[in-house]
Design brief:
InterPro entries: BON_dom (IPR007055), Lipoprotein_DolP (IPR051686). It comes from Aliivibrio finisterrensis. Keywords: Signal. Pfam families: BON. By secondary structure, the chain is of the alpha/beta class. The chain has 3 domains: 30 residues; 73 residues, Histidine-containing Protein, Chain: A; 81 residues, Histidine-containing Protein, Chain: A, CATH 3.30.1340. Helix content is 45%, strand content 23%. Strands 4-5-6-7 form a 4-stranded mixed β-sheet. It has a 3-stranded mixed β-sheet with strand order 1-2-3.
């Protein structure tokens, strides 16, 4: 009975993930689930880490003092957003490092005032333009690349070859309104975060 419940849960997770990809970026990304080299267990662990980080950001003392997005691949967690002061930023990073399954934290949280609603909308528009431009690149067909924008800084995350990573960064760099591109790609076994 437990095996049936576990199988149903895993199947639901796969189906929901496929629907999200279809909804966000169209048919071109529906095959991206196949290109993810993580096991289903690793994907669920990574998703849980990201959800825990987001949940932590919505609790005292971080709530209203930080705005954080988190994405995790293979236990490597990228933190993006803003913190009102450096102490909050450091404390938050320490909390994330202590989460089960976290191997490395790339803290890209900027100490600055939190973004306004207008700035958040502008970032959403930049993300949309980057994603749309990436869909037009035949060299990237079937590749799952996540795009996040914070204060006009574009973060690119996913499993790619070095060539695909360079193409992706070049596309993002040429979008109007982008101040900086940060590649947080997984190349083979390694992973890195580098500014362009």
């Amino acid at each position: 009975m437990k095996l049936i419940k576990l199988s149903a849960l895993l199947l639901s997770a796969v189906l929901l993930q496929g629907c999200a990809g279809l909804f966000i970026a169209g048919a071109a990304t529906t095959a991206s689930v196949v290109t993810d080299n993580r096991t289903m267990k690793e994907q669920l662990t990574d998703k849980n880490i990201s959800l825990e980080a987001t949940g932590l950001a919505n609790k005292a003392p971080y709530q209203y003092n930080m705005r954080v997005s988190a994405v995790t691949y293979n236990g490597k967690t990228l933190l993006m957003g803003q913190a009102k002061n450096n102490q909050l930023n450091q404390d938050f990073e320490k909390q994330i490092k202590s989460l089960n399954g976290v191997n490395t934290v790339y803290n890209q949280i900027r100490v600055r005032p939190l973004l306004t609603f207008t700035q958040i909308n502008n970032d959403s528009w930049i993300t949309t333009k980057v994603k749309s431009s990436l869909l037009a690149k035949s060299e990237l067909n079937g590749i799952k690349i996540s795009v996040f924008t914070e204060a006009q800084e574009v973060f690119l995350v996913g499993f790619v070859t070095e060539e695909q990573g360079n193409i992706t960064a070049e596309v993002a760099r040429n979008i109007k309104g982008v101040k900086e591109v940060i590649k947080a790609f997984e190349y083979g076994q390694g992973g890195s975060v580098e500014k362009e």
